[in-house]
Specification:
heterodimer, A: 610 residues, two-stranded antiparallel sheet, 18 helices, 2 strands, 65% helix, B: 360 residues, alpha+beta, Immunoglobulin-like, 3 domains, five-stranded mixed sheet, three-stranded mixed sheet, 12 strands, 43% helix, elongated
Chain lengths: 610, 360
C-alpha cells in the first residue's frame, strides 16, 4: 500500500497522463471515464436515431436501405440501453456513492476499473460489426427464431449475443461492488435510514441488475448454443419454443427498464430538495416505493407479451401486476411535488432538467397504464404508440434526469460551473424537440403505424406526424451539440464554483471540488439525512447534531492509504473480449484471450496490496 | 371492379368522419398544456386529421369496439390525471419560486395521512381500470360458434397465406370474409414470428411457429380493410401487408366458387406465351397455378392472382404496370424478398403480364 504522495501520477507528459488513466482505480476518475464513454455512445445511438428519422420523414423514402434500417433500430436500442444510459448511471454511481456515504473509494477499486474496461471493449466489440460483415439486425429484443442461423447466417447476431454477455459481466461486477460498498463503507452514523436517496436508488438498481441479468445470460447462452452447436432451445422444428426466449428476455427486460429509471429517480430526489431548500418529502416512502417498484417489476414481464397468445388468465394476472406498479410510481411523483410545496425554488439548469424529468415521466407513466390493459395493448402493441411511451419513460425520464445530474454535479467533478444560460437553452430545445418527436408518435400508433418499419405508404395518413417527429429529433440533436460545446468549454473556462455552489445537503458538498484523491481528510460522523445542511445552518437543523469533517490544518497531504493503480484490470478485460472475438473471427483469438486472462488473473492476485 | 370496391371503402370512411372529428379533440386538449411551446404544432395537428385507413379508432367488430371504448375511457382518465398532477406541479413551481429575501423555508419531512391518501388514490384508479379490463380480455378470447367459418392464416417471410379448409380455398394476401358470421382464424407461421393485425377488426395476435393461436371475430360491415404484419420479421417487415375484404354471404360464396376452380385458360396468344414462360422463368418451382405445371409451394398460390386487388403482399395495386414493375425487379420493389426471377425480355414480360392479369 502506498500513500497518496506515492501514487500521484506523473501527468507532465502525455504518456504519463494516459498511463495514469489506464491504470487508475480512483472511483472519481473511473466515473469520468464512464461519463465520457457513455456520452460518446449516446451520440452514436443518437446518430442512428437521426438516420432512422430521416428515412421516415417522408413516405417511401430511400435514405437508408431496408437492411441498414434493421441494423439501425437494433443498434439504436442496444446502444442506448447498454452502452449509453446504464453506463451513464454507472458514472453517477462511481462519482457519488463513495462521496455521499463518506467513503474514500469503492469496496473493490480494481474490480471497478475492470467493470469499466469490459464495458468499453464490449461496446467497441459490438460496434465493430458495422464494418465486419453486418451489424446485429434482429431488434434489441432479438426474438427467436429470427436470430437463428436459418434466418441470419452471418455473424451479426453473434456480435450482439457475445456483446451483451460481455456487457452483462461488467454490469454484474459493478453491481456487486456497489452493494458491498454501500452496505459496508458508510460513514459512522449513516444508517440506511439516513442514506441519501440517490444511494438508496443505486443500491436497489444494483440488486435489480444482479437478479435480472442472469435471465438474459441464460437466454443468450441457449441462443449461442442454438447458433453454434445446433441445439434447438428456441427452434420449433427441433422441439424448441420461440416463446421461451421471450420469457427469458423480458424477465430480464422489464426489470431493465427500472434499472434505467431508478438512478434518474435518485438524482431527481437529490436535486429537487437542494433547489427547494427543503428535505425530500416522505423520505421513507420514496425509498420503499423504489424497492416496491423493483420487486413488483419482476412480476410484470409478460405485459410485453400480451399479443403472444398466453391466454386470458395469464393476461389478467399480468395486467393486474402491471397496474399495481402505477401505485408506488405515483407515490414517488406525489412526494416530489410535495417536496416542492412550501419550498424556496431556484430555477438553475439542473432544477429545470429535474422538473422536466418529473413532468415528462408522468406522461410515460400514464401511457404505460393504458398499455397495461391487454385489449388496448393488443391494438397499439408493436406500434409507434409504444415507441412514444418508452421514450417518455427512458428519454423524458432517464435522459432528462441524468442530464440534470450532469449539470448539478459538474462543479463537483471539475470545480467549475457549466454555463447556466446555455444550459437553459439546451433544456428548452430538448424539451420542445423531445415532445415534438414523441408526442405525435402516440397518434401514429393509434392510427396504425407499426414499429420497426423502414417505410410506409403515402396513403396511410402517417406523413405529417412523421415529419413533425423528424423535425423534433433534429432539435434534440442540436440541443445535444449545445450541451457538448457548453461542457467542453466549461471544463477550462467555466466560472469557478467553489466546493458547495448549490447549498447542497449531502456529504459530497462538504469537501473541495474537484475532491482530493482520498475524498475525506477525516471520515465524517453523520447523524442526519442532510449533514451538510446541519453544518451550514447549525446543529439541530434536521433535528440532529452533525460533526463537520474538519479541514486538516496540519498537513497538506494527509497520510492516507489509498489503493495502488493497476494495469491488470485492462489486461483482463482485453483477454475476455479477445476470447469473444475468437468465436467470431479466428479461434486463435480464444487462446490469446485465455492466456491474457490467465496472466492477468495471476498478476491481479500477486499484485502487492500493501 | 377493384376500383369500385376501393371507392366503397372510401365512402364508408367518409361516413365515419364524425369519429375522426372526435378523435382530434383529446389531442387538441392535450396539446393546450404545451400551447406556449407548441402553437405551430397545434395548427398542424388540426390539419393532420386526414384519412387514416389503418386506424384503431374506427372499429367494425365487437372486439375492436371493446378495445376502442376501453382505450378512450382510459385515455380520458389519464388526461384528467395528467391535468391534475401537472397542474399541481406547475402550481408549486410558480407559487414557491424563490424570491429575494427568502430565508430557509419550513422543513417539512412528511405527512402520513397525506401519503396514505395519495397511495390510495392511484390504487382506486387502477382498480377501476382493471375492473373494466378483465371482462374485455375474456370477451376477446371467446370461443367461436359451431358453424363458424374456419380460416388458417399462415405467415411467411413476407406474405400471408390464407386457407379455408372447409371450402377448399387457398389464396394469399387478400382475406375474404362473409359479413355477419363468426369466423375462427387459426394463426400459424412457416418461418419466424409474424403478427396478424387488422385494426378495424381486432387487436393483433402473433403468429408463432409451433404454437396454436386462434381468435374469433364477427365482421359487421362490408368493405376492404387494410392489415399489416405487426411483429418484426426481417428485412421486408414493413412491406408485409394484406387486405381483408368483408362481403355479403352471396358475394363470398361466388368468390369461393371462383377460387376453387382451376385457372382461367389463357384467352389470347400473348397470354398463351405467358403460360409457357412460367416454366422458362422458373415460376413453377415456387408457385402453384392449378391447371398448369406450376405446383410449387414456397410462394403464394397464383391461380387467381389476376382477381386480387393488390400484388406483392398488399404493396402495389394490381395493375398491368405494377405487375410489370414487380416482375422486372422484385428486389427493387420489395427489398429482401425471396423471389428469384431471371431477367426477362420485353416480349416475355408482356406475355407474362397479359397471362397473369387474365387469371381472374
Amino acid at each position: 500500500m502506498a500513500t497518496v504522495t506515492a501514487t500521484a501520477p506523473d501527468t507532465r507528459t502525455f504518456a504519463g497522463t494516459a498511463w495514469s488513466w489506464i491504470t487508475t482505480v480512483d472511483h472519481k476518475r473511473i466515473a469520468v471515464l464512464y461519463l465520457v464513454t457513455s456520452l460518446a455512445f449516446f451520440m452514436l445511438g443518437g446518430l442512428e436515431a437521426l438516420l432512422m428519422r430521416l428515412q421516415l420523414a417522408t413516405p417511401e423514402a430511400d435514405v437508408v436501405s431496408a437492411e441498414r434500417f434493421t441494423e439501425l433500430f437494433t443498434m439504436h436500442g442496444t446502444t442506448m440501453v447498454f452502452l449509453a444510459l446504464m453506463p451513464l448511471s454507472a458514472a453517477f454511481f462511481n462519482l457519488l456513492v463513495p462521496l455521499m456515504i463518506g467513503a474514500r473509494d469503492v469496496a473493490f477499486p480494481r474490480l471497478n476499473a475492470l467493470s469499466y474496461w469490459i464495458y468499453l471493449f464490449g461496446g467497441i466489440f459490438m460496434n465493430i460489426s458495422f464494418v465486419a460483415g453486418g451489424a446485429p439486425n434482429a431488434g434489441w429484443f432479438g426474438y427467436a427464431p429470427l436470430t437463428d442461423t436459418a434466418f441470419e447466417a452471418t455473424h451479426a447476431i453473434d456480435f450482439w449475443a457475445f456483446g451483451l454477455q460481455i456487457l452483462g459481466v461488467s454490469s454484474i461486477l459493478a453491481s456487486i461492488n456497489f452493494i458491498v460498498t454501500i452496505i459496508n463503507m458508510r460513514a459512522p452514523g449513516m444508517t440506511l435510514n439516513r442514506m441519501p436517496m440517490f444511494v438508496w436508488m443505486s443500491m436497489i438498481t444494483a440488486f435489480l441488475i444482479i437478479f435480472a441479468f442472469p435471465a438474459i445470460t441464460i437466454g443468450l447462452v441457449l441462443l449461442i448454443f442454438d447458433r453454434y452447436i445446433e441445439t434447438s432451445f428456441f427452434i420449433p422444428e427441433g422441439g424448441g419454443d420461440p416463446v421461451l426466449w421471450q420469457h427469458l428476455f423480458w424477465v430480464f427486460g422489464h426489470p431493465e427498464v427500472y434499472i434505467l429509471i431508478l438512478p434518474a429517480m435518485g438524482i431527481v430526489s437529490e436535486i429537487l430538495p437542494t433547489y427547494s431548500r427543503k428535505p425530500l418529502f416522505g423520505y421513507a416512502v420514496v425509498a420503499y416505493s423504489g424497492a416496491a417498484i423493483a420487486l413488483v417489476g419482476f412480476g410484470v414481464w409478460t405485459h410485453h407479451m400480451f399479443t403472444v397468445g398466453l391466454g386470458p388468465i395469464a393476461d389478467t394476472a399480468f395486467a393486474i401486476s402491471t397496474m399495481a406498479i402505477a401505485v408506488p410510481t405515483g407515490v414517488k411523483i406525489f412526494n416530489w411535488i410535495a417536496t416542492l410545496y412550501g419550498g424556496s425554488i431556484s430555477f438553475k439548469s439542473p432544477m429545470l432538467f429535474a422538473v422536466g424529468m418529473v413532468s415528462m415521466f408522468i406522461i410515460g407513466g400514464l401511457s404505460g397504464v393504458m398499455l397495461g390493459s391487454p385489449p388496448i395493448d393488443a391494438q397499439v402493441q408493436d406500434t409507434y404508440f409504444v415507441v412514444a411511451h418508452l421514450h417518455y419513460v427512458l428519454f423524458g425520464g432517464t435522459v432528462f434526469g441524468l442530464f440534470g445530474g450532469i449539470y448539478h454535479w459538474f462543479p463537483k467533478f471539475t470545480g467549475r460551473f457549466m454555463h447556466d444560460g446555455w444550459g437553459k437553452v439546451h433544456w428548452l430545445l430538448m424539451l420542445i424537440g423531445f415532445n415534438l418527436t414523441f408526442l405525435p408518435q402516440h397518434m401514429l400508433g393509434i392510427d396504425g403505424m407499426p414499429r420497426r418499419v423502414h417505410t410506409y405508404a403515402a396513403d396511410m395518413g402517417f406523413d405529417l406526424w412523421n415529419m413533425m417527429s423528424t423535425v423534433g429529433s433534429l432539435m434534440i440533436g442540436f440541443s445535444f451539440l449545445i450541451f457538448i460545446i457548453n461542457a467542453l468549454r466549461s471544463i477550462r473556462h467555466g466560472e469557478p464554483s467553489g466546493s458547495d455552489p448549490w447549498d447542497g445537503g449531502t456529504l459530497e458538498w462538504t469537501i473541495p471540488s474537484p475532491p482530493p484523491v482520498y475524498n475525506f481528510a477525516h471520515i465524517p460522523i453523520v447523524d442526519s439525512r442532510y449533514p451538510a445542511w446541519d453544518i451550514k445552518r447549525g446543529g439541530g437543523h434536521t433535528g440532529a447534531v452533525a460533526t463537520a469533517p474538519e479541514a486538516d490544518a496540519e498537513a497538506d497531504e494527509p497520510d492516507i492509504h489509498m489503493p495502488n493503480p493497476s494495469y491488470w484490470p485492462i489486461v483482463m478485460a482485453a483477454g475476455m473480449v479477445l476470447a469473444a472475438c475468437g468465436l467470431i473471427f479466428h479461434q486463435a483469438f480464444i487462446l490469446l484471450g485465455a492466456v491474457l486472462f490467465a496472466i492477468s488473473l495471476i498478476g491481479w492476485i500477486e499484485e502487492p496490496a500493501g | 371492379m377493384h376500383k369500385a370496391r376501393q371507392s366503397v371503402t372510401r365512402a364508408d370512411r367518409d361516413e365515419t368522419r364524425p369519429i375522426q372529428g372526435r378523435r382530434s379533440t383529446p389531442l387538441t386538449r392535450n396539446r393546450r398544456i404545451y400551447a406556449a411551446l407548441l402553437v405551430p404544432a397545434l395548427a398542424l395537428a388540426v390539419a393532420a386529421c386526414g384519412v387514416t385507413p389503418q386506424t384503431t379508432l374506427e372499429p367494425t367488430t365487437e372486439a375492436a369496439r371493446t378495445a376502442r371504448d376501453l382505450l378512450m375511457f382510459v385515455f380520458w382518465a389519464m388526461v384528467v390525471t395528467f391535468v391534475l398532477v401537472e397542474g399541481a406541479l406547475l402550481y408549486c413551481l410558480i407559487r414557491f419560486r424563490r424570491r429575494s429575501g427568502d430565508g430557509i423555508p419550513a422543513q417539512t419531512h412528511g405527512n402520513t395521512p397525506l401519503e396514505i391518501g395519495w397511495t390510495i388514490a392511484p390504487a382506486i384508479l387502477v382498480v377501476v381500470i382493471v375492473v373494466l379490463t378483465v371482462p374485455a380480455i375474456f370477451s376477446n378470447a371467446r370461443a367461436a360458434s359451431p358453424d363458424a367459418l374456419q380460416v388458417r392464416a399462415i405467415g411467411h417471410q413476407w406474405w400471408f397465406e390464407f386457407q379455408y379448409p372447409d371450402i377448399g380455398v387457398v389464396t394469399a394476401n387478400e382475406l375474404h370474409l362473409p359479413v355477419g358470421r363468426d369466423v375462427e382464424i387459426q394463426l400459424e407461421s412457416n418461418d419466424v414470428l409474424h403478427s396478424f393485425w387488422v385494426p378495424s377488426l381486432r387487436g393483433k395476435l402473433d403468429m408463432v411457429p409451433g404454437r396454436d393461436n386462434k381468435f374469433t371475430i364477427k365482421p359487421e360491415v362490408t368493405g376492404t380493410f387494410p392489415g399489416q404484419c405487426a411483429e418484426f420479421c426481417g428485412t421486408a417487415h414493413a412491406l408485409m401487408k394484406f387486405y381483408v375484404v368483408v362481403e355479403t354471404q352471396a358475394e363470398f360464396t361466388a368468390w369461393a366458387e371462383t377460387q376453387r376452380a382451376e385457372r382461367v385458360p389463357p384467352a389470347s396468344d400473348l397470354a398463351r406465351q405467358g403460360e409457357e414462360t412460367l416454366t422458362l422463368g422458373g415460376c413453377v418451382a415456387c408457385h402453384t397455378i392449378r391447371g398448369t405445371d406450376s405446383a410449387g409451394i414456397l410462394g403464394p398460390d397464383l391461380t387467381h392472382i389476376g382477381g386480387r386487388q393488390h400484388i406483392a403482399a398488399g404493396l402495389l395495386e394490381n395493375t398491368p404496370e405494377n405487375m410489370r414493375a414487380w416482375l422486372s425487379d422484385p428486389q427493387g420493389v420489395k427489398p429482401g424478398n425471396t423471389m428469384v426471377i431471371p431477367e426477362l425480355t420485353t416480349e416475355q414480360l408482356d406475355a407474362l403480364v397479359a397471362y397473369m392479369q387474365g387469371l381472374k
